What does this fold into?
Amino acid sequence: MNINMSLKCGECSNQTNCRVGMSNRDVQPLKFSCKKCGTLIGIHVTAKGADTLDNRAIAAFQAGKKPKDVYLNQGVNWTITNASEVGLDGMFDPKLDFVDLHLDFPVVFGSYVPGNTPYMQAVGRSGGRMAAFHRQRLGLINDQYKKYPQVVELISKYTKGFYGPFCDYAKKRFKLQVKSQRMEDINAALYTVVSYYVLPFTLPDDSQALVRKYTGTAVDLMQNKKAAMAAFLQELFDTDFLASLQRDCLKVYKPIFDAELPLRPALFLDVDSTYAAAKTAMRVSSQDFMEYREVYKDMAEVLNRQLVLLAGMGNLIERGDHNAFAVRTSKTGKQLSPASLNEYADVALGNKLHDLDSGWHTIDPLAHDNELRNAIAHNKIDYDDVTQVITYYPKLEGMEREKKREIQLLDYMHRLLALFREVHRLHHLVKCLNYALLIEPGASMVKRP
Ligand SMILES: [Zn+2]
It folds into this structure.
């Protein structure tokens, strides 16, 4: 279902025609920038029983009701900020600015074509079956999003070590009985909740296969390279590295939940195989970029630390010693590879992949975008909210900002999603090694004070 409206900018009076495609979410905060003056205009839609909206609208149209009466009768309401609504008589005036808006799909910057709605365009690009999968996944988010603050609270009780209140909260809010106050049972409860709420943001089958692989490898190392694995676990325990990394991993979920709205169209790129090739500029119909800058940087920092674990495991597999990296030397014979895992922890993220020689786990290249990460970390980034173009400068040389790169906000959200998925995947490794410290055969391999 779509609602056509025409809005006059509160700052410069420029008029923009909007076609608002309805999502099944009960609250839909949409935003776009006035093309003439850049003012951020908001359309806040509320829709009662949004998941049945399409069917009810079709029924009303079939009963011969006028579009306006249909919307008013369907429990759909909206308020406008920074603009006022102008009465619409018939078709849009093609001379005016036009935007398509839809929370769930990327929308093309372009002109109005009757009937070619964001939804129809999306179905055209992904096919009906994949578009339905996308809607199903978003349906799960629609059902879950109001619980995000409680998931965050549960995580917070865990990371602060309030295990008693954690168990009470899990029972009260998630109907989850924690078996006992032993850490392995508390962990099981925590990860049951986290996996369920994070599911729509991950790729199908990503988690289970990985958990099997990580667990299988850890068990194999504990049985067949016992002393070496014990030394690795001992170092993880003594340095508190694993525990602090687990806390950092758990911090990435809140920002992902907070970014749910702009991630919705980015999720569509999973099913849109034409996107990468087409290079069409597409818009995100919700919040702006600035809020999601820090998120990327913080998440990349977590990845940076996770790679230490990955390197340790890789070294154990390849050379039977978590500190033993494959030797890399410069032309002059200087050793470039780190002498120990501890030294590797200090290697910059951009150079960390050089010393991961085990093919055991491959990092998604989209998740490891060092240029973008550096640009964000060093504030070498600009955002134009009218075009939704992010410009960044991977190298700041002299006074001139050379070698600029541009990406759309949609691409940025997509990369953020890829980074999140990688961090979430490697969180399974953190979890697995954590269990190795808690339960046998690993638990007794570690000397404790
Ligand atoms: Zn304006």
Observations:
- The chain has two domains: 2-103, 204-445.
- Residues 204-445 form one domain.
